[in-house]
C-alpha cells in the first residue's frame, strides 16, 4: 500500500526543492551583469544542487515514511496497552449504546468477557437512551454495581475515515466513550455530613396555665416533672440535647438523622405527653417548631421560631418543620383549647385602633366566594373604622345568592354610603400607602378576594379563625389568628367590645355578624365555646334578631332538591366516609349547597366524615365536614386546601369530578395507612 506524507512534514521535506527558484534568479542575474562565463558556472552549480536535492528527497521520503509508520505502530501499541491497563473502567460504545470495547477494569467490573457486544443497559440497567450524549456534550448518570455507586461520564467522539482510506469519503463516524468513577466513599461522606447537620427546635407547652388550674398546688410540680422527664427521654433516645428556657418553653438541638427518625414515628412525643395524668382534668399538649436547611445556626433558630408561631397559629398540639422553603406538618389531630381570658383580644383591639388612626382610609376584604362569616366580619371592621371617622370600603366582587340579601339591605339603606361595597378594580384604585388593608376569614394570600391589594400597601391586618398554612400572608403588621374561635364574626365581635367603649352597632350590622356565627357553628351545634355565646350575647344586646337571621338563609326549592339528591347519591367509602357530588346546574351558589349537604350527611349513623364535590367556575370545590373522630383539615391540606379539624375545604384546578373523586379516595387510604387520620 502506498504511504503518503502530508501536512507540515511534507512541506519540511520539499523546502530544499523550493530553493531552486532562488538559484534560477541568481543565474539570470549572473548572465546579465557578469557575462556568459559567470552565468554558465552558476547554471552548472544550480544543476548540481538540483540533482543532489532530488536524490535526497526521493531516497529519504520513503525511508522517513517507514520510520514514522514504525513509530506510530509502536506508539499505538503503547497507547492500547496503557488504555487497557488504565486503572479507571473505560469502554467504547457505538451510537446505539452497544459495547465495542472494554478495558480490563471495565471487564472485571461488568463480569463479562471481551466478546460481549450487547447493550450497556444489560450491565447497568440505570443507563437509558436519554443518557447518551449529543453533539459536543458530556453527560453523567449514576449506576450501581455490587453495592457500589459509580458516576458514568459519557462523551461522543467523531472518528474520520474509521471504515476506509478512500480520500473521497467525507463521512464522520461516531463512538461514545464511557468512563466510570467510583463515588461510593464520596457519597457516604456527603450523606454522613448531611445526616450530622444540627437541627434547632423550640418546644412549648400549649395549655400550661389551663392544665395546672385543675391540679392541686402540691401536685403541680409532679405533673411538670413527669412531662419534662418524657421530653428529656424522647430527645435523649435520639441523641438530642434539650434545655428548659422558661417554665413552659424548651430549646433543643439534634442531628438531622435524628429528625428523620422522629418524623418516621410521627413525633410520638405528642401522644406520650397526653398520657401523663395525676388527676389533672385537662391533658397537657405540646407544640414544636423545628428549623433546618441553612448553613447558619442563627438562621435555623429563626426558622424554628417562625415554625413555632405557625404551629401555635394552627391551634397547637403539633409539630411544624421548616426546611428552607418547604414546610411539613405533623400531629394537629385534636381540637385546640379555648382560651378563657380575653387579654389577647383586648391587646389586639387596641393595636388595631392605633393602626386605623394612623391612616386615612380602610379597605376590608375576605376570601374568594365570599360567605356570610367573611361578610359579617368585614361589616364589623367597617363599623370600627366608622367609629374613628375613617373612610371604609368592603371588597365584594363575587356576590353569591347566599349573601346577596344582606348586601342589598345595606345598599338600600340611606344610612350607608353608596360605595360601602366596591369591586376589585375600585379597590386597587383606592389602596395605597395611606390605606389600612384588613383581611378577614382567611390567612392565605392566594385565597383573598383580591391578592393584588397585598402588594399595594404595607399596612396589612389579618383576623382569621382558620389554621395557618404555608401560604399565609407574610407581611402583616397585626395578625390575630385564633383557630379555636368558631368564626371570624366571633373574633371581630370580641375586638369591637374593646375597640371603643362608645362603639354601638346598629341592628342590621349585628344581624350580619350574628348570622356569620350561626352559619359557621351550624346553629351553635359545632365549634362553640364560652366565648362564642358571649359574642352572640353582645350582638343580641346590639339588636341582632334570631328571626330576621333565620329568614335571611331560607333555601329555595331548587337548592333543597339539589341537597336532597346529593344526600341520596352519597357513597359510603370504607364504611365510615360519605362522599357525594352536588349538581351545579341551575344553582346560583352550588358551593353553599354542597357545604349544607356535607353537614346533613354527618347525621347518618356511623359516618365519621363527609365530603361533597361540585364543579363550579371550572374548578372542583370540595366541602369536608366531621364531628370529632376525623381531622378533615389534614385531609384537605393534602389536597392544597385547609380549614378546621371538623370543617375544611379545597379547590382543585384541571381536574374532572371522576379524577377528583379518585384523588380524594386515594388520599384517605394513604393517610389511613400512614396513621395520620
Keywords:
6-stranded mixed beta sheet; 6-stranded parallel beta sheet; 677 residues; alpha/beta
What does this structure look like?
- The structure is a single chain.
- By secondary structure, the protein is of the alpha/beta class.
- The chain is built from 22 helices and 23 strands.
- The strands form 4 sheets. A 6-stranded mixed β-sheet has the order 7-8-6-9-10-11. A 6-stranded parallel β-sheet has the order 14-13-12-15-16-17. A 6-stranded mixed β-sheet has the order 18-19-20-21-23-22, with helices on both faces.
- Strand 10 and strand 11 form a beta hairpin.
- Helix 16 (507-520) crosses helix 18.
- The N and C termini lie far apart (83 Å).
Distance between the termini: 83 Å
Strand order of the largest sheet: 7-8-6-9-10-11
Main β-sheet: number of strands, strand sense, barrel status?
6 strands, mixed
Provide the structure class: alpha/beta
Hey, roughly how much beta strand do the residues contain?
15-25%
Compact description:
The chain has 677 residues and is an alpha/beta fold. It has 22 helices and 23 strands. The strands form four sheets. The chain has a six-stranded mixed beta sheet with strand order 7-8-6-9-10-11.
Question: What order do the helices and strands come in, and which of them pair?
Answer:
Layout: H1 7-18, H2 20-33, H3 36-84, E1 90-93, E2 99-102, H4 104-110, E3 138-145, E4 148-160, E5 172-182, H5 184-195, E6 198-205, H6 208-213, H7 217-237, E7 241-246, E8 249-255, H8 256-264, H9 269-274, E9 286-292, H10 297-313, E10 318-323, E11 326-331, H11 343-357, E12 361-365, H12 372-387, E13 391-395, H13 404-411, E14 421-422, H14 424-430, E15 435-440, E16 460-464, E17 478-481, H15 488-499, H16 507-520, H17 530-541, H18 546-552, H19 557-568, E18 571-573, E19 577-581, H20 590-601, E20 609-616, E21 619-626, H21 632-638, E22 642-643, E23 647-653, H22 657-674
Parallel strand pairs: 9-10, 12-13, 12-15, 13-14, 15-16, 16-17, 19-20
Antiparallel strand pairs: 1-2, 1-5, 3-4, 4-5, 6-8, 6-9, 7-8, 10-11, 18-19, 20-21, 21-23, 22-23
Helix pairs in contact: 1-3, 2-3, 11-15, 12-15, 12-16, 15-16, 15-17, 16-17, 16-18, 19-20
Amino acid at each position: 500500500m502506498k504511504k503518503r506524507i502530508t501536512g507540515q512534514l511534507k512541506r519540511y521535506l520539499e523546502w530544499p526543492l523550493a530553493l531552486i527558484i532562488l538559484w534560477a534568479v541568481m543565474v539570470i542575474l549572473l548572465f546579465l551583469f557578469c557575462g556568459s562565463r559567470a552565468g554558465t558556472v552558476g547554471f552548472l552549480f544550480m544543476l548540481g544542487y538540483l540533482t543532489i536535492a532530488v536524490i535526497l528527497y526521493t531516497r529519504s521520503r520513503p525511508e522517513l515514511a517507514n520510520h514514522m509508520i514504525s513509530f506510530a505502530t509502536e506508539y499505538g501499541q503503547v497507547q492500547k496497552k496503557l488504555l487497557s491497563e488504565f486503572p479507571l473502567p473505560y469502554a467504547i460504545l457505538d451510537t446505539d449504546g452497544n459495547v465495542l470495547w472494554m478495558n480490563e477494569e471495565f471487564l472485571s467490573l461488568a463480569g463479562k468477557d471481551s466478546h460481549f457486544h450487547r447493550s450497556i443497559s444489560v450491565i447497568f440497567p440505570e443507563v437509558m437512551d436519554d443518557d447518551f450524549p449529543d453533539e459536543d456534550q458530556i453527560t453523567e448518570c449514576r449506576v450501581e454495581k455490587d453495592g457500589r455507586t459509580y458516576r458514568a461520564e459519557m462523551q461522543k467522539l467523531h472518528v474520520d475515515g474509521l471504515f476506509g482510506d478512500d480520500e473521497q469519503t467525507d463521512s464522520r463516524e461516531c463512538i461514545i466513550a464511557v468512563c466510570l468513577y467510583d463515588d461510593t466513599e464520596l457519597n457516604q461522606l456527603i450523606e454522613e455530613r448531611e445526616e450530622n447537620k444540627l437541627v434547632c427546635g423550640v418546644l412549648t407547652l400549649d395549655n400550661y396555665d389551663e392544665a395546672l388550674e385543675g391540679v392541686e398546688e402540691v401536685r403541680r410540680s409532679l405533673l411538670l416533672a413527669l412531662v419534662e422527664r418524657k421530653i428529656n427521654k424522647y430527645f435523649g433516645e435520639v441523641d438530642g440535647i434539650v434545655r428548659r428556657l422558661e417554665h413552659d418553653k424548651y430549646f433543643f438541638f439534634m442531628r438531622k438523622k435524628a429528625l428523620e427518625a422522629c418524623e418516621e414515628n410521627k413525633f410520638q412525643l405528642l401522644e406520650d405527653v397526653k398520657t401523663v395524668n395525676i388527676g389533672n382534668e385537662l391533658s397537657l399538649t405540646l407544640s414544636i417548631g423545628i428549623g433546618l436547611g441553612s448553613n447558619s445556626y442563627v438562621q435555623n433558630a429563626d426558622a424554628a421560631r417562625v415554625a413555632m408561631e405557625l404551629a401555635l397559629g394552627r391551634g397547637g398540639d403539633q409539630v411544624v418543620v421548616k426546611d428552607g422553603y418547604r414546610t411539613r406538618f405533623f400531629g394537629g389531630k385534636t381540637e385546640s383549647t379555648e382560651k378563657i381570658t380575653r387579654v389577647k383580644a383586648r391587646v389586639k383591639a387596641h393595636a388595631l385602633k392605633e393602626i386605623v388612626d394612623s391612616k386615612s382610609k380602610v379597605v376590608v376584604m375576605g376570601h374568594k366566594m365570599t360567605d356570610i362569616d367573611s361578610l359579617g366580619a368585614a361589616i364589623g371592621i367597617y363599623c370600627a373604622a366608622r367609629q374613628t371617622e375613617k373612610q371604609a370600603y368592603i371588597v365584594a366582587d363575587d356576590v353569591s345568592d347566599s349573601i346577596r340579601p344582606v348586601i342589598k339591605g345595606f345598599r338600600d339603606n340611606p344610612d350607608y354610603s353608596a360605595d360601602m361595597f366596591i369591586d376589585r378594580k375600585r379597590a386597587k384604585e383606592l389602596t395605597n400607602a395611606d390605606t389600612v388593608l384588613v383581611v378577614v376569614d382567611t390567612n392565605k394570600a392566594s385565597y383573598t378576594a383580591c391578592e393584588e391589594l397585598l402588594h399595594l400597601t404595607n399596612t396589612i391586618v389579618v383576623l382569621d379563625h382558620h389554621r395557618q398554612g404555608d401560604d399565609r400572608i407574610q407581611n402583616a403588621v397585626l395578625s390575630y389568628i385564633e383557630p379555636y374561635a368558631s368564626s371570624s364574626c366571633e373574633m371581630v365581635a370580641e375586638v369591637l367590645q374593646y375597640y371603643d367603649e362608645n362603639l354601638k352597632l346598629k341592628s342590621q350590622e349585628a344581624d350580619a355578624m350574628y348570622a356569620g356565627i350561626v352559619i359557621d357553628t351550624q346553629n351553635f351545634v359545632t365549634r362553640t365555646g364560652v366565648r362564642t355565646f358571649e359574642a352572640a350575647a353582645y350582638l343580641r344586646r346590639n339588636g341582632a334578631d334570631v328571626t330576621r337571621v333565620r329568614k335571611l338563609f331560607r333555601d329555595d326549592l331548587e337548592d333543597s332538591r339539589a341537597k336532597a339528591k346529593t344526600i341520596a347519591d352519597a357513597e359510603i367509602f370504607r364504611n365510615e366516609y360519605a362522599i357525594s357530588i352536588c349538581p351545579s346546574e341551575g344553582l346560583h351558589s352550588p358551593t353553599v349547597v354542597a357545604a349544607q349537604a356535607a353537614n346533613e350527611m354527618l347525621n347518618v349513623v356511623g359516618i365519621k366524615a363527609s365530603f361533597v364535590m361540585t364543579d363550579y367556575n371550572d374548578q372542583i370545590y370540595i366541602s369536608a365536614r366531621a364531628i370529632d373522630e376525623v381531622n378533615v383539615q389534614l385531609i384537605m391540606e393534602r389536597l392544597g386546601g385547609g380549614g378546621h379539624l371538623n370543617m375544611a375545604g379545597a379547590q382543585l384546578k384541571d381536574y374532572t369530578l371522576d379524577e377528583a373523586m379518585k384523588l380524594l379516595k386515594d388520599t384517605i387510604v394513604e393517610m389511613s395507612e400512614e396513621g395520620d387520620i
